[in-house]
Design a protein that fits this description.
The chain has 242 residues and is mainly alpha-helical. It is globular, with a radius of gyration of 20 Å. Helix 4 packs across helix 9. The longest helix has 26 residues. Strand 1 and strand 2 form a beta hairpin. It has a 3-stranded antiparallel sheet, covered by helices on one side. The protein has 12 helices and 3 strands; from the N terminus they run H-H-H-H-H-H-H-H-H-H-H-E-E-E-H. The protein has 2 domains: 154 residues, Orthogonal Bundle (Ribonuclease iii, N-terminal Endonuclease Domain, Chain A); 77 residues, Double Stranded RNA Binding Domain.
Length: 242
């Protein structure tokens, strides 16, 4: 499949509520890596724009939540942001726009149902946000985020997000690495008078937290709380370093 026709690009821009977007940036934002694998002469995939768009999206949502929840603490703001920017939420927004119809895919990805895969849809939406940021700056990119994610943002503003530690970690990990956390029981003292479980939670090949409890659920919750605390600390330290 080649790049979208000019009429198709105009239709997509209309759905996004954009007056214009540089054609080369739009094409790049829609180009999946599978197309490059089958067409070596193609310039680039949307992965770099996706990286940039993820950061712009996070900042846009963080600023909105900071303004609208003046009494909320850092942990609550982080959980609400994670709920809004997680992959499944972005894929749902992209589905409303029928973004999958405009993706530039390789034949293999096309035949495997790539136009409806959450990962592809979420990545393309982030890439478009990154493209708008490069072309027009932060304010138009922030406006785009508020338009395309309006239902999810309105729900968060109306209800907030109060979930347990495992659910919170699920949202944070999905938003950061686009995969769910994995809980592994590393110790189970079955048969002992005081049975004890030790659970580790991992994601992206790294240990995030470790917890103990009288049952597996309690241990998993403790591991999730430790993981959330560690992720929030690393994010704060990263912001300080920059």
């Amino acid at each position: 499949m080649g790049q979208p026709a000019a009429r198709d690009r105009a239709e997509l821009l209309a759905r996004l509520g954009l007056r214009r977007l540089r054609p080369d940036l739009l094409e790049e934002a829609l180009t999946h890596a599978s197309y490059l694998n089958e067409n070596p002469s193609a310039s680039s995939s949307n992965e770099r724009l996706e990286f940039l768009g993820d950061a712009v999206l996070g900042l846009a949502v963080a600023r909105l939540l900071y303004e609208r929840f003046p009494t909320a603490g850092e942990g609550e703001l982080t959980r609400i942001r994670a709920e809004i920017v997680r992959g499944s939420t972005l894929a749902r927004a992209a589905g409303r726009l029928a973004l999958g119809d405009f993706l530039i895919l390789g034949r293999g990805e096309e035949s495997a149902g790539g136009r409806t895969r959450d990962r592809n849809l979420a990545g393309a939406l982030e890439a478009i946000i990154g493209a708008v940021y490069l072309d027009a700056g932060f304010a138009p990119a922030r406006a785009l985020v508020r338009r395309v994610l309006r239902p999810e943002i309105e729900q968060a503003l109306r209800e907030g997000v109060r979930v347990d530690a495992k659910s919170s970690l699920q949202h944070v990990v999905q938003a950061r690495w686009h995969e769910p956390p994995e809980y592994v029981t590393v110790e189970d003292t079955a048969g002992a008078p005081d049975r004890r479980f030790v659970v580790e939670v991992r994601a992206a090949g790294r240990l995030l937290g470790r917890g103990e409890g009288r049952n597996k659920r309690e241990a998993q919750q403790q591991a999730a709380r430790e993981a959330l605390a560690g992720l929030e600390l690393s994010e704060k330290e990263g912001a300080t370093c920059t």
